[in-house]
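# step 3/5: fold
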Amino acid sequence: MPIYADVIVDINSAALDRVFTYELPETGEYSLGTRVKAPFGGRTIEGYIIALKSEPGMDASKVKRVLRPLEDYAALTGEQIELAMYMRAHCKCTLSSALRLMIPAQMRGERIKVKTCRTARLLLTGPELDTVIESQARAPKRRELLETLRDMGGCVRTSELPKGSSDALKKLSEAGVIEIAEDEARRAPAVYDSGRAHTRPPLTPCQQRAFDELYAALDGGGRFLLHGVTGSGKTEVYMRIIEELLSRGRTAILLVPEISLTPQMAEQFTARFGDLCALLHSRLSAGERFDEWRRIRRGEARVVIGARSAVFAPVENLGAIIIDEEHESSYLADNYPSYDAREIAQERCAINRALLLLGSATPSVSTYMRTLAGVRPENKLTLIEMAERVNRRALPEVKIIDMRKELLRGNRSIFSGELKQALDETFRAGEQAILFLNRRGYSTFVSCRNCGYVEKCDNCDVTMTYHQYDNMLRCHYCGAERRPHTICPSCGSPYIKYFGVGTQKVEEELNALFPEAGVVRMDADTTSGKDAHARLLHEFGTGDKQALIGTQMVAKGLDFPRVTLVGVIAADTSLNLPDYRAFERTFQLITQAAGRAGRADKPGRVIVQSYEPDHYAIKLAAAQDYRAFFTQEAGRRRQGLYPPFTIIARLLIEGRDKARVESTAVELEKQFQAFLDGDARMKQQIVQMRAMEAPLKLIRGLSRWQVFVKLYARGPSDGVLDFMARLESERAQDKSDVNVVLEISPASIL
């Protein structure tokens, strides 16, 4: 009797976002989640089986047959298929685009294979093996080979055996003493080694209270926010919860926001859980990612550590998803399909009755709001607070330096007088310092002092950043680069000046002031190579270099016991960005950066340099007063009707023809207005809706407009978002050179 399957074809098209029925061959293994090769139109495509059935539900003579399975196992779990359907409904994307997130990209098109190696395995042990070795007195090569195999554990890659062993291998294999086989070879990610001993410390009273409350929720699941000050020991609580889950036969996912945090987390968790840990992040090679994914899929790895996309890891019997530094915007995917990893995690936990744990010293305003009274039950988070550092260590002393006064004193250096002195004292004491600046490069921009000309990217509506090490201007959006002008191309003046400060310039000045200290710089330029994060962190962790300079990747999560000083070079860099979250992000960055100091026995101190020292985000970050910041920021958001009190969405329109991009935006605005005029209930949801140029008008040569929408968070918002998704879908079918993408709660509105 024929068996049929509902298949989602692996083609990202709204017009094809539906199931297609296929008959399954009598040979081959097929189940829910199997990837298949199948005929489609006049070609063959890949697809995913999302349901099996005994009847086709249509004329059987018109049903095509699947050609073959792509793997001898189901690539997707039933839960992942359910999760993809959730994403289609809530993220307004096609089912195929959601399913693609569940597997390594290189599996599509069969671009990656299992790596194998030839191995030799002893079939004898103990006295029996000793007897055979003794019998090889007249065959020294065979004897040597057997002794080598014995001493190396009995199973060795043939490539690791002594040269000239091939004949001996063959003879011993024929004699039934050893077995030669092709085994799977794991492409294992390199694990960071700090050289520190990792113990299982006793829990502090604060940690114990947090653990006890979470432990009580492990059976039925629950949603929690762990608000712990920097250095309070949140990571140890995470590990204790995972230990308990593993003892119950369950699995766990730990998400971290930055690849730079993955090495230290991986080291700690691997030291505790060994090969039960798997890593998933974008800096793995294709082979490493595939092999880690396979270990998870087979149930060999039961603890997954990774960045945003690890939320889709194919674990089964899920017990918890833990999201460290939950406030980070990197959990928002800004490409298609756009999603919030925190929302996906909540849905996965609901499906599995698993624990959802969000952790941060500086929770996002939206997240903390969910802990308050009056929040709807489906959004409610239980608050757990850890207000003390481990061993009651004091929070670092924080001092704000008014850089306006430094200028009046004639100090035009990057460093205030107080920061210079503190650095000198720190280095003389043999301790370490971290300097944070949220800008890479040498200078922010290059300008003519005579006419005001600024070096801008030809492809993007942004200034280019000067990089001194190779004397190049670079666009940090499209990667375009060129040599800086020595003569102004606008007025012919020679008065070209480099303005602003980047990490390279900080490094240069620090080396000039303290040539013996040694400097490690971490930014997008120095961490682009494979394993660069781990290598640089190891270099600093050994203590040979006393200063670490970096962008936001060094401002959170890192733990170095010898760091006693943190300097925030320009605290107000992010204050004036055109983003309603600018104050929140400034507070978070300063608080998190400050938290890197004094995490061991020696007290820490923090020096924050600012030209706006009286801004509440800076003053309250220095005071480490999250509650006061939340109260003031939430009040500002409520008054200005910003999230979480509203939802922001936009249709982003991009294309090379500026006039067509603008006309498309205007037409979409008209269609949107007609929809609202026809539905009074939906119209009441709208706070603001209009077509306008995007803040960044040009990126990678593409003109950009947007239909910007702000709507009330309470009420039938899905109706408005569904209509926006329909507009996106209709434009996609036009196949024009103008691209329209729906973004809901975008990570950036630039």
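# step 4/5: annotate
The chain has a mean pLDDT of 89.
# step 5/5: archive (pending)
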